[in-house]
Specification:
Organism: Canna indica
Distance between the termini: 22 Å
Largest sheet: 2 strands, antiparallel
Protein name: Reverse transcriptase
Number of strands: 2
Number of helices: 5
Shape: elongated
Helix content: 40-55%
């Protein structure tokens, strides 16, 4: 049996047991709670912004690594909840081995200006 699993979910006086229904319900809940980001269709031309700079600015739009994200999380107060879900920084640090890949993927999708889709 999986340890980190939601087998049933109560929603609007209904009990959801199908995995797909649970995923869709949770996805809808968090999208409505957290909002959505407008997709940015612009890609800055850094050479026009900094015409005299002889440096590679592509790192400004590079993807984040898991270790960079975890490092940022660890800099927050451990008893603080960074979002409306009430999950504390301590939770994210403790559960990182389980949720790290997913958090990394979500943050990098947001950085690319995309909404994340759940399969």
């Amino acid at each position: 049996m999986r340890k980190n699993w939601i087998s049933t979910l109560s929603l609007d006086e209904r009990i959801l047991e199908n995995e797909r229904d649970i995923v869709n319900a949770l996805s809808s809940f968090f999208k409505s709670s957290l909002g959505t980001m407008n997709q940015c269709r612009l890609s800055p031309d850094w050479s026009r912004i900094y015409p005299l700079a002889d440096i590679n600015l592509s790192s400004l739009v590079a993807t984040c690594t898991k270790s960079e994200i975890l490092s940022c999380i660890k800099e927050l107060g451990s008893d603080k909840a960074p979002g409306p879900d009430g999950l504390t920084v301590e939770f994210f640090i403790h559960a990182w081995s389980i949720i790290g890949v997913d958090i990394n993927n979500i943050i990098n999708e947001i950085m690319r200006g995309r909404e994340t889709e759940i399969d």
